[in-house]
Structure to design on (828 residues):
């Protein structure tokens, strides 16, 4: 139609939850499953017992009080899995939040200012991107000692550049649009131009990227924890639990498999939910 | 009918593109379709996809608005034409047939290496491949410059004579329709309201909507002393199922029966053709509709001076040697007096937009002097909708310009400017996407004049609008500049529009001013050849 002359592709800047009902079944399932998993993780202290104390003998079979039985030193596997999920999701959230805030700020400034500022900030970003994530994590943990905090710091340090690039690209594209010229002619301050006329346009793609990142981060962090780069034992971490439980895979399969399945469920749910979020933000056909 | 050009005319949202797509059998599966579309003996709606594909291959050709997106950017045009034509040799012949000079060389070009006009010719060559019986052309000239538009329309006329195929030309521009079509079909809100021979419909419209479209057309002969006639209101949602005439709310002749029953398309009694109106004689008197004269011009102010301005853009760093800097403006001197309205006319690449952006301060001149009198000029953009930040509410956008004022006074200004532009106060809480096209235009204008500027810059504000909306925007601009007294520079490629809004016309090509003078003189007695070519390219209205 004639309206389309020179118009940018439409994108929705406002989510309406009612639209979620029109999503494909798998994505709806992902969103619901994600909500359930996050709910379980948040409510862990109410549902489950202390994950770090022995509540029964070793390898107790599943029962009403211990739905997934106990592990080699008598800790409740169900409680440990719930707390492990809590840790995983929280760690992923911290990495993403750091990426969005730091990467977003750098990307926003680089994209809006352009020129030398853009060049400097983006070379810094490229340099950070060139660092290999797992090796960085191993190096930091080797230097500071194994702990979940150090692992999260290491991952966050290699994660933010993706957000910087994404936001910069979006902001640069937005900055070329007429509404930014119009705002400039309206005499708005530089701060207002950045925060009100440019930044909100970069939010939808960032939310989409963040929601798809949850899955990769949970897997990455669990993997590092599996390699012994997380907190030292009794702390409940899904990766470490799976690693320690592998010895009992054939005798007591629930001990290593339960945390593995939890990681799998989070990954699937986060992936489908991420797709769902992306579809919600995409323009209607 | 074979060898006939039928033009489908309607505003955006009238369903003309949908009609074109259904002719091609390309409506998506999400559409609910009833009825039948018979092309070459096959029902394009009932038939399966294999069948419609065969019909497309055997009997149909298509040309769309934007040739850049219709052509495959990664493939040489020769191969794209050959894909439909069968052989390279046939492709060569077709490119020659659509008037491409040196076709053997162009065969090896990629789409981005061709101009818009050449790309559209390539599209037409593809449409012509395999001797189609029908070509569907959807707004084929809308994205083109006027002189190129004239050539492409000429090409359609020639094809009809040489090849003998039928052409369905979809357009929003009655001028385009009238210059090539044998028959015209006027669409309104998804329904045919008038159908008839081109001359008959244009000279003697039977439906009030066709008549209103005709009178609101921006022509070289419209009366400059009064406002342009417009169609009140805005087009309805074509999905409404009400059993009334969809045009009734906007019709100057509406009577109770119009909202009670939907009129059917029936034979017009006094000439050939059909119309969907309860009344027959009414429309012919619409031509005498009286429009108000312009308000007197008050306290003229503002001025702009450009002295020997040169704008040079550095050449993009090409991989294999750049071509040097590109000079968008080569020594332009222009003075705009207080309260004066100057139309800047030229085609794409003439430097007219660069000149405007230099005045707005977006582009720094390489040399020369630019003076807009200290105050920040305001600008109306080509796409008013895109000039409104999509996630902000209208109130906030308007307020942006008056943030220096105390809160209570801001509110007063907002209310005042909305009233001046005929907008309801509710739009303050709406986001741009929730407004109609006409409202977005008004909001963009409201932002420009909420704190009256000394200089208003208009960058092709009507080139993408339907005739009626375009006329109302010109009316608003004309009224505002007289009431508020600001100077105005109106950039356009359309001499008819330029004539209506300006006191003086400046014609630009290739970064230079080639003619300037009082509006009537430039239009009636152009001094420069280029101005003459532009004038001749305005689609001839044969009524």
């Amino acid at each position: 139609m004639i309206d389309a002359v020179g118009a940018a592709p439409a994108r929705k800047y406002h989510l309406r939850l009612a639209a979620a009902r029109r999503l494909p079944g798998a994505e709806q399932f992902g969103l619901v499953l994600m909500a359930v998993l996050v709910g379980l993780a948040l409510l862990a202290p109410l549902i489950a017992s202390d994950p770090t104390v022995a509540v029964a003998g070793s390898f107790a079979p599943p029962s009403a009080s211990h739905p997934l039985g106990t592990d080699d030193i008598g800790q409740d596997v169900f409680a440990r899995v719930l707390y492990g999920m809590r840790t995983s999701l929280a760690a992923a959230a911290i990495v993403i939040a750091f990426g969005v805030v730091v990467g977003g700020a750098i990307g926003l400034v680089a994209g809006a200012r352009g020129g030398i500022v853009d060049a400097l900030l983006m070379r810094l970003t490229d340099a950070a991107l060139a660092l290999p994530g797992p090796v960085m994590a191993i190096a930091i943990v080797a230097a500071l000692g194994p702990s979940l905090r150090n692992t999260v710091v290491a991952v966050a340090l290699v994660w933010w550049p993706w957000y910087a690039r994404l936001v910069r690209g979006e902001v640069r594209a937005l900055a070329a649009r007429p509404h930014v010229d119009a705002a400039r002619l309206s005499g708005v301050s530089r701060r207002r131009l950045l925060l009100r006329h440019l930044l909100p346009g970069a939010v939808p793609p960032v939310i989409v990227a963040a929601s798809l990142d949850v899955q990769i981060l949970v897997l990455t962090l669990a993997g590092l924890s599996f390699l012994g780069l997380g907190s030292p034992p009794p702390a409940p971490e899904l990766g470490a639990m799976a690693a320690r439980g592998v010895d009992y895979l054939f005798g007591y399969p629930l001990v290593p498999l339960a945390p593995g399945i939890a990681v799998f469920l989070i990954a699937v749910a986060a992936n489908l939910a991420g797709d769902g979020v992306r579809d919600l933000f995409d323009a209607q056909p | 009918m074979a060898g006939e050009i039928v033009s489908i005319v309607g505003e955006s949202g009238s369903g003309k593109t949908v009609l074109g797509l259904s002719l091609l059998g390309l409506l998506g599966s999400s559409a609910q379709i009833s009825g039948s579309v018979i092309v070459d003996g096959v029902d394009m709606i009932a038939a399966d996809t294999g069948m419609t594909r065969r019909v497309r291959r055997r009997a149909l050709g298509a040309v769309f608005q934007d040739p850049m997106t219709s052509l495959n950017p990664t493939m040489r045009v020769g191969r794209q034409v050959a894909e439909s034509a069968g052989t390279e040799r046939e492709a060569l012949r077709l490119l020659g047939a659509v008037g491409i000079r040196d076709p053997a060389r162009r065969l090896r070009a990629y789409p981005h290496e061709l101009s818009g006009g050449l790309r559209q010719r390539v599209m037409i060559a593809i449409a012509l491949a395999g001797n189609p019986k029908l070509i569907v052309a959807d707004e084929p000239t809308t994205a083109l410059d006027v002189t190129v538009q004239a050539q492409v329309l000429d090409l359609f006329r020639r094809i009809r004579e040489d090849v003998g195929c039928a052409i369905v030309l979809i357009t929003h521009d009655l001028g385009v329709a009238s210059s090539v079509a044998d028959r015209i079909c006027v669409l309104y809100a998804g329904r045919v309201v008038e159908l008839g021979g081109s001359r008959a419909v244009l000279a003697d419209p039977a439906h009030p909507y066709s008549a209103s479209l005709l009178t609101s057309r921006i022509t070289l002969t419209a009366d400059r002393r009064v406002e342009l006639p417009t169609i009140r209101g805005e087009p309805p949602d074509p999905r409404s199922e009400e059993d009334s005439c969809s045009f009734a709310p906007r019709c100057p002749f509406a009577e109770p029966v119009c909202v009670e029953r939907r009129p059917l398309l029936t034979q017009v009694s006094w000439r050939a053709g059909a119309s969907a109106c309860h009344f027959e004689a009414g429309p012919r008197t619409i031509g005498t509709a009286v429009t108000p004269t312009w308000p007197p011009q008050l306290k003229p102010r503002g001025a702009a001076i450009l002295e020997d301005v040169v704008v040079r853009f550095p050449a993009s760093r090409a991989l294999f040697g750049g071509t040097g800097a590109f000079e968008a403006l080569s020594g332009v001197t222009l003075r705009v007096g207080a309260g004066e309205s100057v139309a800047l006319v030229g085609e794409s690449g003439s430097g007219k937009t660069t000149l405007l952006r230099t005045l707005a301060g977006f582009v720094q001149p390489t040399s020369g002097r630019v003076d807009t009198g200290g105050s920040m000029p305001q600008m109306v953009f080509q796409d008013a909708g895109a000039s409104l930040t999509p996630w902000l509410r209208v109130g906030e956008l308007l307020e942006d310009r008056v943030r220096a004022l105390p809160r209570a006074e801001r509110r007063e200004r907002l209310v005042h400017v909305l009233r001046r532009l005929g907008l309801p106060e509710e739009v303050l809480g709406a986001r741009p996407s929730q407004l109609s096209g006409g409202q977005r235009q008004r909001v963009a204008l409201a932002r420009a004049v909420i704190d009256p500027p000394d200089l208003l810059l208009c960058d092709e504000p009507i080139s993408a609008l339907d005739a009626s909306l375009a006329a109302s925007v010109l009316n608003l601009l004309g009224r505002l500049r007289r009431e508020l007294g600001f100077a105005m520079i109106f950039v356009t490629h359309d001499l008819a529009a330029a004539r209506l809004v300006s006191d003086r016309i400046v014609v630009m090509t290739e970064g230079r001013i080639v003619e300037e003078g009082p509006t009537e003189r430039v239009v009636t007695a152009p001094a420069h050849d280029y101005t003459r070519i532009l004038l001749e390219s305005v689609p001839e209205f044969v009524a």
Summary: The domain at 304-537 of chain B is CATH 3.40.50.300 (Rossmann fold). The mean pLDDT of chain B is 83.
